[in-house]
Structures are given as C-alpha cells and as structure tokens.
Amino acid sequence: MITPRGKRLQLSHLRDLRSALPDAPCIVLHSACAEPPRLAQQLSEAAEVFRGATVYGLMPMGEAPYAGVEATEHLSVQALFPGKGLREPINSGRASFRRCTLSEIPALFVSGEIRADLLLLQVSAPDENGRMSLGVSVDYMRAVLAQDPIVVAEVNPQMPFTCGDTALLPEEVDFVINANRGPQVVCPADTDDIDLTIAGHIAGLISSGAVLQTGIGALPDLVFTELGHLYDLGIHSGVISDGVRPLIERGVVTNATKKVLPGKTVTTMAAGTRSFYDFLDRNPPSSTVTLASACFC
User: Fold this and answer.
1) Which CATH superfamily is domain 9-178 in?
2) pTM exceeds 0.90 for this model
3) Computed from CA positions of residues 87, 179, 296, 245, in that sequence, does the dihedral angle turn out positive or negative?
4) Which residues 6+ apart lie within 8 Å of 11 measured at CB?
5) Residues in a beta bridge with 293
6) Are 116 and 144 in contact (CB under 8 A)?
7) Residue 189, pLDDT score
8) pLDDT tens readout for residues 114-163
9) How distant is the alpha carbon of residue 60 from its chain centre?
10) In the chain, which stretches have pLDDT less than 50?
11) SS3 (DSSP) at 127
12) Segments making up each domain of the chain, as ranges
C-alpha cells in the first residue's frame, strides 16, 4: 500500500493502514487526557492485525483498551507514565513501565532510541487556516512528529485550541477520523480534614514571587485555594488543572519573576473539567497559558 502523505484523508478504521507499516511497527498514542479514545478502541479491535507492534502511551486518564487481556496477546504495551488507564495492566504484567522523567522523554525520540511508525492524536477542529491544535497535551508530541511517522488525527470539536506550541499544519496530518466523544476530563477529587491540614502546611511554605510546579488531584487544588493573598506567582509545570484558573483570573499568577518564558504560565499538558478546557480554548484570559514540549518543563 502506498500511503498518500499530508492529505488528511478520511479513515474508516485503523486496520486499513496495516499494510503501510513495517512488520513490527512502533505506535505512539497522544498522552494523558488527549489520548484518542476512538483510535485507542480501534487499535484494540485490530490488535491481532497489528501483531508484534509496540505501543507507547503516557498517563491515559481514561480506559486503555489496547492494554486489555486479549489485545496484549498481540501487542507489547510500554507505559512512559502509568496513569489511571495503564496502572492495572502494569500491575498485572500485561504492560511494561519505562522509568524516566517527563523532561527526558523527547530525547528518546530525538535520539532515535524510539522511532515511531504511526502516531495517533486527538486534535481540535481546524481553524480558518486549516490548522488543528494538539489541545490539552503537547509533551513529547513534537519530537515524535519530527520523525515523520504516519499521523492519524481524531478530530474533536470539543478539544480546545490552546496557545503555545500546539498548532498542526494541514500537511502534518495524513488521515483523520471523527471523534465520538469529548476529551477525557478529570473531575476534582474528594477531600477530607487531613487533606485540608496538609494543604495548609504546604501553602505556608510558599511566598509571593515563587514559581510553582504542580500535579493533579485534591492536594494541589487545595493548596491553590490558600494562595489568594500572594502576588506575582509563577507556574512552570508538567501538568495544570482547574486549581490554577482562579489565580490566573485574579492576577495572583503573573509569572513576572520567571527566568524562562517570563509572563507565561507554562505546562506540557492540562487535565481538568470541561469548564477548564473551555477556559483554555482561544480565551483571552488564558492567553498567558502556554503548552510547551516536555523538555521545557
């Protein structure tokens, strides 16, 4: 099969691309809340067709059907970070965990240690110039794209068009498939009195002008609720969630003291509610939020 490149052709099913790939292809999935659910499901359905493939995922926050019992009889699943979707497969021995920091992952692709044959993305709807956005996750996708794999994009009108290094040119996408649900959301976690006490202790260690790296979950969001009295905070993080939004909107987070990308809230991915994704979508109050490659985080 000769695969036309950069044409954004409509794809019916992932199995239709098997003959365009090597015998033991390397398949990379968009990470975290941007993992494409329809393409992930199709990969699971076509696991036997893709027998011998190595599949790389990072922190899927929804289901990871390609790591199911039947699919992993044919696929070798490698987790760069486990996340909700790959934790059980790793604990059960159906998937492997490659230990590295988030900032080290792009170099695995730049060096050619991992070479992608097929990249499965979830992207925003195209803008007036035909560009689509990587949405809520950039991390190491630029390093994978630089290897020129076959790119299949699950186009999702509910994926925010975010600022930063997120725009894909039309010619960077080979095939498209329409999404059948919104991007994965992460709802605020339940908290208790112990969480509140811990958050209070952490907040007491933070002063005005501090630059913060955060995670997702109950504690980070609780800490942010305790920082409203400060000023000129900065954010330079692997991931951000709903907790940063009030501080950005109220001007508590200005990123004025940052040495790297001053004035910008920098993250490599976002994981939050539908409301938070709407906030990130071409929204002037969020224009200081920049999604960057993981090597910057």
Assistant:
1) Glutaconate Coenzyme A-transferase (3.40.1080.10)
2) yes
3) negative
4) 17, 152, 175, 176, 177
5) 139
6) yes
7) 84
8) 999 999 999 999 999 999 999 999 999 999 999 999 999 999 999 999 99
9) 8
10) none
11) coil
12) 9-178, 193-296
State residue 289's pLDDT score.
Answer: 84
Distances in whole angstroms, Cα of residue 202 to Cα of each of 115, 230, 231, 254 = 41, 14, 17, 20
Amino acid letter for position 137: S
The answer to whether 235 touches 214, Cβ cutoff 8 Å, is: yes
| Torsion angles phi and psi, residue 86, rounded to 5 | -110, 0
**What are residue 215's phi and psi, to 5 degrees?**
-120, -160
Token output for 50: 């893709």
Which CATH superfamily does the domain covering 193-296 fall into?
Answer: 4-hydroxybutyrate coenzyme  like domains (3.30.750.70)
pLDDT of residue 217: 86
The per-residue pLDDT for 3 is 64
d(CA 222, CA 2) in angstroms, rounded, equals 53
* pLDDT for position 295: 60
DSSP codes joined into one string, 159-224: S---SBTTEEPGGG--EEEE-SSPPP--PPPP--HHHHHHHHHHHTT--TT-EE---SSHHHHHHH
- Long-range CB contact pairs, 171-174, < 8 A, 24+: 171/5, 171/6, 172/6, 172/145, 173/6, 173/8, 173/121, 173/123, 173/132, 174/3, 174/4, 174/5, 174/6, 174/7, 174/8, 174/9, 174/150
CA 162, 165, 169, 174 torsion: positive or negative? negative
* Complete DSSP assignment for 11-28: -S-GGGGGGGS-SS-EEE
pLDDT of residue 285: 61
State whether residue 71 is helix, strand or coil: helix
Contact 104, 98 (CB under 8 A): no
What confidence tens digit (pLDDT) does each residue in 53-86 have?
999 999 999 999 999 999 999 999 999 998 899 9
Residue 42's Cβ-side half-sphere holds a number of Cα atoms within 13 Å equal to 22
